[in-house]
Amino acid sequence: MEENEIFGRVRESEKETVLAIYRSMIGTPGCTWNEDYPDEREFAFDMARGALYCMRNQEGKILGLISVDEDEVCARLPQWNLTAKAAELARLAVISEYQNRGLARRMILTVMEVLKEQGYGAVHYLVSPGNERALASYAKLDFECRGRTFLYEQEWLMYEKEL
């Protein structure tokens, strides 16, 4: 993390900020999100599990979001290679003025540390093949590409990493 960044859980009172950040991603290159996803349901699901994290600046402004999802369909995909208890990273978003500064990578690395402390042995995530910025960013993290899958009316590349 950068010296002026604070990583932690999102607060319930920040719902509208989170939803605005999600909506701001719609239509950006490679983004598969739309008006129906992610929305209040995903926010509530993540909050109920304490699984929605953010990076803030010193003033408390949310700069980026990442969640630890529980998607049984995704978890059961046969392409995953690691046998350790795995967590799925999802719904990663960085506000426009902080994109291309390595914030997404720092959030992933930090949440992986949290997950390791919680007993997870691996992480995985799905990314749209058309999301070139995400693919370039994640390439620096040494995740292994485990193939492709088609879920939720979308093609995905599958990545995983041992913790």
Descriptive account of the structure:
A 7-stranded mixed β-sheet has the order 1-2-3-4-5-7-6. It is α+β, with helices and mostly antiparallel strands and 163 residues long. It starts with 5 loop residues before the first strand and ends with a strand. 29% of the residues lie in helices and 30% in strands. It contains 5 helices and 7 strands. The mean pLDDT is 94. It has helices at 15-25, 40-48, 72-75, 103-117, 132-139, and strands spanning 6-9, 52-56, 62-69, 86-94, 122-127, 144-151, 154-162.
Descriptors:
7-stranded mixed beta sheet, alpha+beta, single chain, 163 residues, 5 helices
Number of DSSP E strands: 7
Overall average residue pLDDT: 94
Low-confidence stretches: none
Order of helices and strands: EHHEEHEHEHEE
Cα shape: globular
Helicity level, as a percent range? 25-40%
> What is the count of DSSP helices, taking H or I runs of 4+ residues?
5
The whole-angstrom Rg is: 15 Å
Q: What structural class is derived from the secondary structure elements? A: alpha+beta
List the helices and strands and how they pair.
Layout: E1 6-9, H1 15-25, H2 40-48, E2 52-56, E3 62-69, H3 72-75, E4 86-94, H4 103-117, E5 122-127, H5 132-139, E6 144-151, E7 154-162
Parallel strand pairs: 4-5
Antiparallel strand pairs: 1-2, 2-3, 3-4, 5-7, 6-7
